[in-house]
Design goal:
Largest sheet: 5 strands, mixed
Radius of gyration: 21 Å
Strand order of the largest sheet: 6-12-11-8-9
CATH class: Mainly Beta
CATH architecture: Sandwich
Helix content: under 10%
Number of strands: 17
Length: about 220
């Protein structure tokens, strides 16, 4: 009996060490061919029974996508599935916010200030935002699902903790339509890794198209 207990403890200790090794944090740095970091890129793993989490209640506090100097602020916003977003207009001119993206098509017609109600994003995915009045305005909302994901910082770095090697990486500069996720296979172990990815040249303002048509101008 004593020997059995010792063997059981050794087995549990070995499993714990193995799990800790698999879950060791790895620093991932994302850069383009010129060495410029991909800021606010999202790295996620494929959903599996082992790592997919149960849906949880979204934060009650809405996220904020402001409009400052005729630009969305922040340009990229990462939120939880089911979370709401408010769109205050801090400019002294009116804006007309809209999106044709499949997870959440919507529009907020010409308005100023912060009088508009929040918008709820119930489906995961990437939502591209525009202003029907100012074509230079382009913003993105990444609605997370219930799988592990991480966002890179100002240096293009994120601390990844996962048992999986296969990840998906998203940044709006990866594709013309701003929706493409790039697959990547991480190496085993906790050694830092730098991933170089192509950056698509930004389209000219007059040629930006991410929907089938524009809303009728007011």
């Amino acid at each position: 009996m004593i020997i059995l207990n010792i063997l059981l403890r050794i087995t549990l200790f070995t499993i714990t060490l193995t799990s800790s090794a698999l879950l060791a944090a790895k620093t991932v740095t994302l850069v383009d061919e010129q060495g410029r970091p991909f800021i606010n890129a999202v790295i996620s793993v494929a959903a599996t029974a082992g790592e997919a989490s149960s849906p949880s209640a979204p934060p009650q506090q809405p996220a904020i996508m402001d409009q400052v100097n005729r630009q969305f602020e922040p340009t990229m916003l990462v939120i939880e599935q089911g979370q709401t977003v408010v769109f205050p207009n801090s400019d002294n001119i009116r804006h007309h916010v809209y999106s044709f993206s499949q997870p959440k098509p919507f529009e907020i017609k010409l308005y100023a200030g912060d009088s508009v109600p929040p918008v709820q994003f119930s489906k995961p995915g990437i939502v591209v935002l525009g202003c029907n009045i100012h074509d230079s305005m382009l913003g993105f909302i990444y609605v997370k699902d219930n799988i592990p994901s991480w966002q890179t910082n100002q240096n293009g770095q994120a601390e990844i903790t996962t048992m999986q090697n296969e990840v998906l990486i998203w940044h709006p500069d990866f594709s013309v339509n701003h929706l493409e996720r790039l697959p990547y296979a991480l190496t085993a172990g906790d050694e830092p890794v730098t991933i170089t990815l192509p950056r698509i040249t930004q389209l000219e303002t007059s040629k930006r198209v991410f929907g089938s048509s524009k809303f009728k101008r007011q």
